[in-house]
Write a structure and sequence with these properties.
By secondary structure, the protein is an alpha+beta fold. It has one domain. It has four helices and nine strands, in the order H-E-E-E-E-H-H-E-E-E-E-E-H. Strands 1-9-5-6-7-8-4-3-2 form a nine-stranded mixed sheet, sandwiched between helices. A hairpin with a 2-residue loop joins strand 7 and strand 8 (150-156). Helix 2 crosses helix 3. The radius of gyration is 16 Å and the shape is globular. The model has no long low-confidence stretch (mean pLDDT 88).
C-alpha cells in the first residue's frame, strides 16, 4: 500500500482539503482508490473526538480511462460510505451485515437523498468561488463541486461544514501520516 504522500504525488490533478479556520484539525487519514492500477480518487478524512466528522473526496476526470468498471460517484454513495464509517446504523433490526442488508441500507440512503432538497452553494477553493450543490439527508450533508475537470465531494456532519473553504493539498499536508 503506497504511503499517503506518494498517493498524493501520483494523483493526476489537484486534491482538495480543508483550508484555514474552518478546519476540524489536520488530515487524520489520506486514502486513495485506484481503477485498473490508475489513481481514481483521494479522500482526506478529518476527525473530531476520534470519529470521522468530514470527508473530502477528490475524484479524477474519467477522460482517457476505459469507462468499463468505473465506480459510480454521487451523493448517495458518498453518504452511504460516510454513515458506515461513523457507525451510524440505518437499519436497526439487522444483526449481521449481508448483501441483503447492504442493499437495504443503500436503498434507505437513496430514498432520503432523492427526497432531499438540493441547494446551490458556492465554496472557495484556493480563494476562487466554485459553484456546486448541497444535499442534506439523514442528519448529514454532501456538497458536490466541479473543480479542474474533477469532482470534489465534501461529506460530513453539517456543523463540520459551517465555515467551509478548501485548498489544494501539498505533500506537507500528508507528511505526518
Amino acid at each position: 500500500m503506497p504511503r499517503p504522500v506518494d498517493s498524493l504525488a501520483r494523483f493526476p490533478g489537484p486534491v482538495a482539503i480543508v483550508h484555514g479556520e474552518g478546519s476540524p484539525g489536520p488530515v487524520a487519514f489520506l486514502d486513495g482508490d485506484a481503477v485498473n492500477d490508475e489513481p481514481w480518487a483521494i479522500e482526506a478524512t478529518y476527525q473530531k473526538s476520534g470519529r470521522p466528522c468530514l470527508v473530502i473526496r477528490t475524484v479524477r476526470s474519467s477522460r482517457n480511462m476505459n469507462p468499463r468498471g468505473l465506480p459510480v460517484e454521487d451523493a448517495t454513495i458518498q453518504l452511504v460510505n460516510f454513515l458506515s464509517r461513523v457507525g451510524r446504523p440505518l437499519e436497526r433490526e439487522l444483526t449481521a451485515p449481508s448483501r441483503a442488508s447492504s442493499r437495504t441500507v443503500f436503498d434507505q440512503v437513496r430514498v432520503a437523498v432523492n427526497g432531499a432538497t438540493v441547494q446551490d452553494v458556492e465554496v472557495a477553493i484556493d480563494d476562487e468561488r466554485v459553484r456546486g450543490t448541497r444535499t442534506d439527508a439523514l442528519d448529514a450533508a454532501v456538497v458536490e463541486l466541479a473543480w479542474h475537470g474533477q469532482v470534489v465531494f465534501v461529506t460530513g456532519w453539517p456543523d463540520a461544514m459551517q465555515i467551509l473553504a478548501l485548498r489544494t493539498a501539498t505533500p506537507s499536508d500528508a507528511a505526518h501520516l
